[in-house]
Design goal:
Layout: H1 12-29, H2 46-60, H3 70-82, H4 89-96, H5 100-103, H6 106-120, H7 127-132, H8 137-142, H9 147-159, H10 172-181, H11 188-193, H12 197-208, H13 221-231, H14 235-251, H15 264-272, E1 285-290, E2 297-304, H16 308-313, H17 318-323, E3 326-328, E4 346-350, E5 361-363, H18 368-377, E6 385-390, E7 396-398, E8 403-404, E9 409-414, E10 425-430, E11 436-441, H19 450-456, E12 460-461, E13 465-469, E14 476-477, E15 482-486, E16 492-497, E17 503-508, E18 511-517, E19 526-529, E20 536-545, E21 553-561, E22 577-581, H20 587-591, E23 596-600, E24 606-615, E25 620-631, H21 636-648, H22 651-656, E26 662-668, E27 674-680, E28 686-693, E29 696-703, E30 713-717, E31 726-727, H23 730-735, E32 738-739, E33 745-751, E34 754-761, H24 783-798, E35 800-803, H25 807-827, H26 829-839, H27 845-850, H28 859-872, H29 877-891, H30 899-911, H31 916-920, H32 924-933, H33 936-953
Parallel strand pairs: 2-10, 8-12, 15-21, 34-35
Antiparallel strand pairs: 1-2, 1-7, 2-4, 3-5, 6-7, 6-9, 9-11, 10-11, 13-16, 14-15, 16-19, 17-18, 17-20, 20-21, 22-23, 24-25, 24-26, 26-27, 28-29, 29-32, 30-31, 30-33, 33-34
Helix pairs in contact: 3-6, 9-14, 10-12, 24-25, 25-26, 28-29, 28-33, 29-30, 30-33
Length: 969
């Protein structure tokens, strides 16, 4: 609907009336479909919008906003939201609106948006985003798609284009849920946007499908054209959207939502509700990896496919797969990082052969329905026999048909005893309990007894009819019977035989109509191109005729998987693998070392990393730095230290830190592949803003919580007394920036359940006054004092770091002092006194060891811990935990209910308790009481941490760990 052009100079009341007519007409047009109205659908031309904004600004300079022109403010606030880039909404609002600080009222704006919802059917924010950002969620929702999120939507639509179907376009929520399922590693702000599935679905439908120019059914056409024009300003976004629109146009048309010229198969899919609702097979695959040149010993690997397809089909599994850690049955028991299984296929070393009835993936805290879903769609095929063909790369790939052919080597595995084929097998070992194996080696032709002997162990001979992927399009091929293609690709296969075939029939599980092929000459290739197939696994079977024999056949499993998501760790090519935990880390988490980055690939190969800081507002590159090369594989602790030493601690980087909004890490390993990790500044309802000027640093507080019932509170802790809380006027920081004292410290703001922390140290040109000696008070041991100490540790640990380069080391010293205080609360005053003397050089490490035992019977345990230090210095944290478990189990066998969990609690508490509450959850208080009842265990854990880190610190220049060598991934 077009707005009538009238002369400039309207009053706000006149603009209000004009907008009221516009929104009333839109509301009435959508009454039958119950579609909401958005404030961005004001229908004003650019010149008219400029006039309205000027009228609003003139008014606010001298008077507060009035109800009589509320719609003007609703539109104005939505336009500010349209240009919002995730920084400070109200600060941006005030900068564009002089006089707002004196005359404005945020809650009044929220009330007017609510009135807009009641009177004109305006969209209403929903979900966690709306709860946490209860004021700014209104103008940002009514901005529909802020400019800085448009590129991400274009690429998600491009990635999801092959999943478009009439069923997907049948409702806004269905399309919105598809987009949400394909947005697993987008930015936190985009994650907020896609919580409004109906909105994102309406918007995507309007962008993808050609609407009638006069139709107001979904979103006003003039608004759609504006969004599309802004989105297409960037070449990549324009190309993504154009391709997605082309596919959507081919699959569906808006009127009637039916496909023209549908085939019988396509119509059946539409009647079923779309291919996305069909059962999805995501079977794991077993691999063998040789441990020596003679191939006498093998590792067993479980290859877990990317679970993005599972999340796409079953949204209820989304929060579990992305937000919970997972334990793989048969592995070491170490949980996989959150979101690890949507970052491409993962290979996990097995120490025990999983049972056929065992749930392979156990997610922490997963609801029963999600666990049932995983049992249904994810499991090993029944045994007791498995066959592996040795490929040219030396790996053993599972042959699911259990068929062997001449001139090949195989490893046969059984779970009911070692398999033997007389004259053809030799025993080999597996580093995996519960299974036995032998190597099979066949000559160029089978002998008379071979088929009978291999049949006795569950194998059969295969005819020489080869079915394999043709060309270069397959993304993976095991050399035997399984190949992968990406969703949307058309698989092409080749059929070859070593003898003349009178004919062949090709059938596919997804298509009941077989393809008949005529005579095939020996060695002559026959190519078959398939249509694009839906997600999942499909079996292509070739049955042949050879002088009346119809039993010869070939088989190929065609696996279709979704393309890798584009955000987070983005794999482009090759075997390079980058694991990230959490899957979508913030800038602050990356900078403070709270992100686990594990880089794996061929052992001994090198890779390089380039790190860039960008300004979000205009995408300007602030600084780029090439880091020295590292060798594969690189565990998280090594990467964390490397990143901090060569990037975070670099003086040129520190100069641009506060201006940066995005940190981009690009990992390059030549032909092995590459990956990009993109981390944006934290987007939270309550957050500190930092500004540095020469040797002065100011802090301000952005409060978008919208909570009026609870007061805004503020606390300050000094670096020298990190446990001593002093109140500050947080509302003063919310009103305007405040310069802080040169000594800096930790600033904490709280409103309701929201907490914001920043550790700040104003820059100083000299080293004077930069060495803080952190001291803490002696606290009476109790569960309450332990929980209070943990909260303070969390404040310091989660704090954003700002200002001087010494702020990181000052934060670390504060955390070490607080960890020592917590240890004293749990392990007792006697231990606290001797550890304090040890820290000051008065007591020795041997004195610490003698203090472990709280009774004579525990001296043997203390001595065993002391002897274990040397062997554990170069071990991983997981290996130290395993050894600690062994010693505790030996000496406290009958005294502990859950020894393994308690051991990990003790070591986490002693080495890095910043995330202890999140890890232990509701069991924390009981666990602390159990440790206090067995004082030798927390004391031994603390001794082990101090002794190992002291030796490592002698050889470590820079460490991002609270105690060198102790990181919990």
């Amino acid at each position: 609907m077009a707005v009538q052009v009238t002369p400039a100079g309207r009053s706000l009341e006149e603009w209000h009336a004009l907008l009221g007519a516009q929104f009333t007409a839109l509301h009435e047009a959508r009454a039958a479909t119950n579609k909401p109205v958005f404030a961005l659908e004001h229908g004003l031309e650019a010149s008219e919008l400029h006039q309205l904004e000027e009228a609003v600004r003139r008014h606010i300079r001298s008077a507060p906003p009035f109800n009589e022109h509320a719609l003007c403010w609703v539109v104005y606030a939505a336009e500010v939201g349209y240009g919002y880039s995730g920084d400070e909404y109200w600060q941006t609002f005030a900068q564009r609106t002089p006089g707002w600080h004196q005359q404005g009222d945020r809650d009044w704006v929220r009330r007017k948006f609510r009135s807009f919802h009641d009177e004109f059917g305006g969209a209403r924010p929903e979900g966690a985003w709306a709860k946490h950002f209860s004021i700014i969620c209104w103008p940002i929702l009514h901005a529909i798609l802020p400019r800085d999120l448009q590129r991400q939507l274009a690429q998600v639509l491009f990635e999801a284009r092959h999943s478009f179907s009439p069923a997907v376009f049948s409702s806004p929520s269905a399309l919105g849920e598809l987009i949400a399922s394909r947005s697993l590693r987008t930015s936190s702000r985009f994650q907020n946007l896609i919580q409004e599935t109906a909105l994102i679905g309406q918007l995507a439908s309007a962008l993808l499908l050609d609407q009638d120019r006069e139709s107001n059914e979904v979103i006003l056409p003039t608004t759609v054209r504006r969004l599309r024009a802004d989105l297409e300003r960037e070449q990549a976004a324009r190309e993504w959207l154009q391709d997605a629109r082309r596919v959507a146009g081919e699959r569906v048309k808006l009127r009637g939502l039916t496909r023209q010229g549908s085939s019988a198969r396509e119509k059946a899919i539409e009647e079923d509700g779309g291919e996305e609702t069909k059962p999805l097979r995501i079977e794991p695959r077993l691999l063998l990896r040789p441990k020596d040149i003679e191939r006498s010993s093998w590792d067993v690997l479980l290859e877990i496919p990317d679970l993005s397809g599972l999340v796409a089909q079953f949204p209820t599994a989304r929060d579990v797969v992305l937000g919970s850690r997972c334990i793989v049955a048969g592995s070491s028991g170490r949980p996989l990082a959150r979101g690890r299984l949507v970052q491409g296929a993962q290979r996990i070393l097995l120490e025990r052969w999983p049972r056929s009835d065992e749930t392979l993936l156990e997610y922490e805290g997963a609801p029963a329905d999600v666990q049932a879903l995983l049992r249904l769609h994810f499991g090993l095929r029944p045994g007791p026999t498995w066959l592996f063909r040795i490929a040219s790369d030396g790996l053993g790939y599972e042959v699911r048909g259990l068929s062997v052919r001449p001139s090949e080597q195989y490893v046969i595995v059984r779970t009911d005893g070692r398999p033997e084929v007389r004259g053809r097998s030799r025993p080999v070992s597996l580093s995996c309990e519960g299974a036995w194996s032998s190597m099979l080696d066949f000559p160029g032709a089978f002998e008379a007894d071979d088929e009978r002997m291999i049949g006795a162990v569950g194998l059969r001979r295969t005819r020489r009819v080869r079915v394999a992927p043709a060309g270069l399009s397959a993304s993976a091929w095991d050399g035997e019977g399984r190949a992968e293609w990406l969703l949307g690709e058309s698989p092409c296969v080749v059929i070859q035989a070593d003898h003349t075939l009178e004919g062949a029939t090709v059938s596919l599980t997804a298509d009941p109509t077989p393809l008949r092929i005529g005579r095939i000459e020996p060695g002559a290739p026959t190519f078959v191109e398939l249509e694009a197939l839906p997600l999942g696994e499909h079996v292509l079977t070739v049955r042949t005729q050879h002088y009346g024999d119809s039993e010869a056949w070939g088989r190929l499993t065609v696996a279709i998987r979704p393309p890798q998501a584009f955000e987070g760790a983005t794999h482009r090519t090759g075997p390079l693998s980058v694991g990230i935990d959490p899957p979508t880390p913030t800038f602050e988490q990356l900078w403070s070392g709270k992100v686990s980055i594990e880089i794996t690939g061929p052992e001994g190969r090198q890779f390089r990393a380039t790190v860039r800081l960008l300004d979000r507002r205009d995408g300007k590159l602030l600084i780029a730095r090439d880091l020295p090369p590292l060798t594969l594989p690189t565990p998280p602790s090594r990467w964390r230290t490397h990143f901090r030493k060569h990037f975070c601690e670099a003086a040129p980087v520190k100069e641009h830190l506060e201006a940066a909004r995005i940190c981009e890490v690009e990992i390059l390993a030549e032909e092995l592949g590459s990956a990009v990790l993109r981390c944006e500044r934290e987007f939270a309802p309550l957050r500190w803003l930092v500004k540095t000027e020469a040797d002065r640093l100011s802090l301000s507080l952005s409060d978008d919580t919208g909570i009026e019932a609870e007061a805004l509170q503020g606390h300050h802790y000094s670096f020298s007394r990190p446990d001593e809380r002093k109140p500050i006027d947080a509302s003063a920081f919310a009103r305007s920036p405040q310069y802080i004292d040169p000594a800096g410290g930790l600033f904490v703001a709280l409103r309701g359940t929201h907490v914001a922390c920043v550790a700040a140290l104003p820059p100083k040109k000299t080293l004077a006054g930069r060495q803080f000696s952190a001291r803490v008070a002696t606290v009476t041991p109790s569960a309450e004092s332990a929980m209070r100490a943990l909260r303070q540790i969390e404040y310091w640990g989660q704090a954003r770091l700002a200002g001087d380069g010494f702020v990181s080391s000052s934060q670390r010293e504060a955390l070490r002092a607080l960890t020592q205080q917590l240890t004293m609360i749990v392990a007792g005053d006697e231990w606290g006194e001797i550890e304090a003397d040890y820290g000051e050089g008065v007591a020795s490490e041997h004195d610490l060891k003698r203090a472990i035992a709280s009774m004579p019977s525990e001296h043997g345990f203390a001595s065993a811990i002391e002897r274990a230090v040397e062997e554990l210095v170069q071990a991983t944290t997981a290996q130290r935990l395993a050894r600690f478990n062994e010693l505790v189990a030996r000496f406290f066998r009958d005294r502990l209910e859950h020894p393994a969990w308690l051991c990990e609690l003790a070591l986490r508490l002693a080495s890095d308790p910043t995330d202890l509450r999140a890890w232990a959850r509701e069991e924390l208080e009981n666990g602390l009481r159990s440790l206090h009842d067995e004082l030798a265990i927390p004391r031994a854990a603390r001794f082990l941490v101090l002794a190992v880190s002291r030796q490592l610190a002698e050889h470590s220049i820079v460490s991002a760990d609270l105690y060198p060598g102790w990181s919990w991934e």
